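stuck on this fold:
=====
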Amino acid sequence: MEQHKWRFLQRAPSVLLSDFVDAVRAVEQRARCCYSESTAILDDDGDGFAEMLLLDGCFILEFSAKLSRAN
C-alpha cells in the first residue's frame, strides 16, 4: 500500500519530493501533538513522520476525489 501512495506524488513531476516533505515539516510539531501514542519510532531517518503525514494526506485526498467522482 505504501508504494501505491508514492504514486500520488508522481503527478507533480516538476516538484521535488523534498519540497513536499519540507512543506509538511513546517507543521510537523503541531501534528505530533495530535497523536496519543509516541511518534518517535517514525524518526529513523529524520523524515519518517513527515513522509507518513505526506503519504497519508495524499491518500485521503485521492480517496475523497474518487468518492466525489463516483457520486
